[in-house]
Amino acid sequence: MPGIGVFGGTFNPIHTGHLRAAEEVREARNLDEIRFVPSALPPHKTPHDLARAADRLRLVELAIDGTPSFRPWSVELGRPGPSYSVDTLRALRATVSETTRIVFALGRDAFADFRTWKEHGVIFGLCDVVVLTRPPWPDRLVRDDFPVASQGAFCYDPASDAFRHESGHVVTLERITALDISATDIRDRVRTGRSIRFLVPPAVESYITAHGLYRSEDGAR
Questions:
Q1: Residue range 17-50, pLDDT digits in tens
Q2: Pick from 81, 109, 191, 212: most CB atoms within 10 A?
Q3: Alpha-carbon distance 107 to 93, whole Å?
Q4: Every domain of the chain and the residues it spans
């Protein structure tokens, strides 16, 4: 069944690794679209070098322009306080039919800290979850990878190599192409005057240069 993918992050800045991961999730899960959701104030990161939300949203818009299956979604930028994924997923679920499949994608590192997320148990009941991992790929997810409080709500389905939640939603592992690109490295390159060509889309590179992003430690213009 086609559906909607949710791919969140600071996107500080968005880069080719983000785009390729999203495309592989879209293709593997047969999704109609992927929504890129820049966070206003990430609760799990120190935003000392975080560019303005408006700039990061614009970078997302430029990066995915011309890709019909990708769209920006500014839902978290209009909410005060920290950006919580459970609120975003609730907002999406409230606007689509009950039968619309929602797939929430997050990295393996983030899933390892999932127990610290706001109402993480609720997320499992709202959507399917895809855990992204790059080489060296683990063979599979295991029950101990899940928050202790949620482990009893899942059963493993060996036929699909997925964990099925009592709500009917599933958690799966998606092994994506290894692209050793990080936003931290891109910001460092900009600060030290090195090229970021081919690490980000050309329009993103041009915007960063034209607006003086990431030239200082605090990410300000």
A1: 999 999 999 999 999 999 999 999 887 766 678 9
A2: 191
A3: 22
A4: 3-181
Structure tokens at 68: 């019909």
198-213 pLDDT per residue, tens: 999 999 999 999 999 9
Task: Give the closest residue to 199 by CA, choosing from 180, 215, 176, 218.
Answer: 180
Q: Per the confidence metrics, is the pTM higher than 0.85?
A: yes
For residues 13-26, b (16+ Cβ closer than 10 Å) or e, as one string? Answer: bbbbbbbebbbbbb
Q: Compute the CA torsion angle 143, 131, 74, 90 (nearest 10 deg).
A: -30
Peptide bond into 136 cis (omega under 30): yes
C-alpha 32/C-alpha 217 separation (Å) is 38
Q: Could you tell me the two tokens for 128?
A: 């399917």
* Per-residue pLDDT reduced to its tens digit, 157-188: 999 999 999 999 999 999 999 899 999 999 99
Q: What is the DSSP string of 64-116?
A: HTT-TTEEE--GGGGSSSS--HHHHHHHHHTTS-TT-EEEEEEEHHHHHTGGG
Question: Domain 3-181 class?
Answer: alpha beta
* 16-28 vs 53-64: helix crossing angle, rounded to 10: 60
Angle in degrees, CA 6, 54, 8, rounded to 5: 15
* Cβ-Cβ contacts under 8 Å for 8 (sequence gap 6 or more): 36, 37, 38, 39, 76, 83, 85, 88, 106
